[in-house]
Amino acid sequence: MTPTERTIARLPAHLRRYVVGQDYAAYTPRDQAVWRHILGQLREHLSDKAHPVYLEGLEATGIGAEAIPSLDEMNEKLSTLGWSCVAVRGFIPPAVFTELQALGVLAIAADIRTHEHIQYTPAPDIVHESAGHAPIIANARYAQYLKAVGLVGFKAIASVEDQAVFEAIRNLSVVKEDPTATEEEIAHAQARLEAANASHRYISESTRASRLYWWTAEYGLIGDLKHPRIYGAGLLSSIGEARHCLTSAVHKLPLGVACADTDYDITRMQPQLFVARDFEHLFEVLAEFESTLAWKRGGDLGLNEALRARTVNHLVLADGREVTGKVVELLPAAKDVAPGLSTALARLEGPILTSMNGHALDKPFSGAALVAFGQGTLPERGSFTLTLDSGLVLEGFAVGGGEVIALRGTLAGQELTLPSMARLYLTERLPSVAGGPADPGTWDEWFGEMDAFTAGDGEAQARERKAQALPPSLAALYTEVRRIRETGQLASERLEQIARASTDFPTDWLLRAEVAELRGEVPARREAAQA
């Protein structure tokens, strides 16, 4: 098995199905020229502006300047750092990205930007994911932070509106990278994103976690506030952002948990950035942020966060059991049941999955679930009456495995409308409420998309259209220039002929830059880079 195949084999099935082959042979000579140009510009510009580990980190993670990196070679290098990588297609669901990162796996978008978007692209690509994220992993403390912030993002509760925004962002990035997209299609995609953003009823935990990630791992600066250095992947992988971010046009703020309340726009350069004192500072801010999440606080805060999210989440009970479902109703208790908990009953909409330590205890239950808070014991079988300190009284018949029928109940003397059949759980405390299912693998097996690659169809189609948009005669010139570069057989007369032929493609400055560099005309290459 190759290093990449070994990495994929170690992944759980629900993550493995988002992985695609890198298909290295599909990169065109122009793709390779795009990579060379960006890496050459970045290495030159960032040598004294990025965190000191940047240049050695490129070497340590298998990223060279001459050719798009092979993920097999990257995995050989990353394994010595306790990391690995896999190829994915475009945007993947946030929960998948963050879970992979928490496991120490970089999700690398296999495609590469076009030369028209060489300065900056809102779409994930191999430049951003490899040359941006990987180098700073060579710093062990930062590598730990990436895993930790990935886990926090994975545990944060997302809302239904977050999903709509994710789909709109993915659609916009695909449309912008599609050479056949019309102005009307681009405008519609932009309007869709604006509408999705406007639909937010509140700022979810997941949104705040993504902002923290953005202002640190993606767009973070480090060191002295007046003379910081770059460590964020979005800055390290964008020629335009790398040049712009350290200028006086960008407001520099000390990093604090307030960054999680600062929105960002992926379609433009950022007007302000946050500066961390050092990598230890990242952990201080992360701990402060993490302490606000339902994952850590549980109780009423967690229940209310899950209720307003309208998404699948899981409750962790006092005995360690995890109940996955959608919280749809909360009934208040007459008095506090436990510190931070004054809820008598929570109703969850099915399907319901019971698990322990992230592993399902049985198959999902299609009906509703009730979580009653207080001291009491549900018999395994037979009639029961539960009277809890919260003022809740439940009566019914237990058929086994926590399933109850003929359920009736009152709260503070008022009769309740309850499902006639449900799963009933009792717990004295609620230590945690976290985002998504507690056992993602089992949940995905029962309820996941039948084809994970459907999500990547748009990206794949855009990639195919980009390849088709390259005129064959121009592609042939790029191929010849690449061959000359790789063989080292310079023929000045032939290079002159290629230079003249390139004038037939006035907007393709990159080919002229490649030829000028081979001819030793470095100034010409630099001028082309500004085109």
UniProtKB/TrEMBL annotation:
Family as reported in the entry's similarity comment: Belongs to the biopterin-dependent aromatic amino acid hydroxylase family.
Q: Which PROSITE patterns match?
A: BH4_AAA_HYDROXYL_2 (PS51410)
A single Gene Ontology molecular function, please?
A: oxidoreductase activity, acting on paired donors, with incorporation or reduction of molecular oxygen, reduced pteridine as one donor, and incorporation of one atom of oxygen
Q: Which InterPro entries match?
A: ArAA_hydroxylase (IPR001273), ArAA_hydroxylase_sf (IPR036951), Aro-AA_hydroxylase_C_sf (IPR036329), Aromatic-AA_hydroxylase_C (IPR019774)
Q: What GO biological process terms does the UniProt entry carry, in alphabetical order?
A: aromatic amino acid metabolic process
State the name under which the record lists this protein. Answer: Aromatic amino acid hydroxylase
Keywords on this record? Iron, Metal-binding, Monooxygenase, Oxidoreductase
Q: Give the organism, scientific name.
A: Corallococcus exiguus
- Entry cofactors: Fe(2+)
Cite the binding residues for Fe cation: 128, 133, 218
Which region is the signal sequence? none
Q: Output the SUPFAM superfamilies linked to this UniProt entry.
A: Aromatic aminoacid monoxygenases, catalytic and oligomerization domains
Domain Biopterin-dependent aromatic amino acid hydroxylase family profile, first and last residues per copy:
1-349
